[in-house]
């Protein structure tokens, strides 16, 4: 069965973006450092149309995960960095360029309806306004028997966790304390949720922590 | 040189204690699950006067770390679970019993002065009221060439991080989302702090993440 996994980089202190995000710097102060590990991987660079990079175990895992992804879910902020009506959003066309690095259908959770956007390289953006379960359902249909990757932001992942809609949480911990910003985990208002550790792997640049629902409670 | 390390268990969502801590349940709802990994180790059980337990790599590392500890630092809440003047604290004698599991001098950061307490098994509690640097200095003197372990709580570790007084951060991530409680990391109000990963080890019960100051920035 197709898996739905959250796939997100955080600082050791739990932030997915640094303080004071802006349209120009959507990841906030220091936030781009959370993603440096990925920039070094050959398969990440290839996906982004860049040359070079390392082909190690980490890269091999990344490439394998990528190949299994049939659709992507993201929040409005991750799409454009903006908010509110589209006509007021200076990046209404998205902040991912003409040839975005997804190469599969992307489903954007938003309050503001609009027609889909077709980009180069196989990426399309479809805007879904009827909630978290609906956007996930659309992505699963598009992915067919492949996985759905949820890239963020934090609030999208929190909603999925709260509703028990994630199969796996893939967290990439960058070795840095950002000291502030947007947290991946806010209080969920639900019972403690035991997890099963499915993967721990590390390099000097990142520690991957993968978990599924499970455990003893 | 003697090392100062923070040594603390957290949930994947970053909590060192669950919601609603009380004197009877100082770790809050679900908080004791953060420490289950340790209860399974033979050397942890031995330190607590219990029999049995597993002797694996994790246990060997734990035993080796323990043997290197010459003094412990903790906050008032970790000592007694209470707050305010000692005469109002129902656990003014501490919540660690007559033979506490430390077996070395323990230095407690508090606003309320009192004479030291001598316990069985080599544990003493000394109460330090002149701040985080002072309590650390006292512990380092007592530890001589051995390490100082800082057990918590979160606010003590945050103060040490903010003041750059920790050599190493040893975080033990339990595979659970507590969904609320006391966070290990609150915004520090300082520049991002790059770290160097010194150890990543995992078992089904826990993932150990150890970091030192360092990195590329």
Overview of the structural elements:
A 9-stranded mixed beta sheet of chain A has the order 5-6-4-3-7-1-8-12-11, sandwiched between helices. Chain A is built from 6 helices and 12 strands. In chain A, β5 and β6 form a beta hairpin. The first copy, chain A, is 22% helix and 30% strand. The model of chain A has no long low-confidence stretch (mean pLDDT 94). Chain A has one domain: 3-Layer(aba) Sandwich (Dihydrofolate Reductase, subunit A). Chain A has helices spanning 36-39, 42-47, 57-67, 76-80, 132-143, 154-162; strands at residues 4-11, 15-17, 69-75, 105-109, 117-118, 124-128, 147-152, 168-174, 176-177, 182-183, 193-203, 206-213. The longest helix of chain A has 12 residues, at 132-143. Chain A is an alpha/beta fold. Chain A binds chain B through residues 11-14, 18-19, 29-30, 33, 161, 169, 171, 173, 175-181, 183-185, 187-197, 200, 202, 204, 207, 209, 211, 215, 217, and chain B through 11-14, 18-19, 29-30, 33, 161, 169, 171, 173, 175-181, 183-185, 187-197, 200, 202, 204, 207, 209, 211, 215, 217. β11 of chain A pairs antiparallel with β9 (176-177) of chain B, so a sheet runs across the interface.
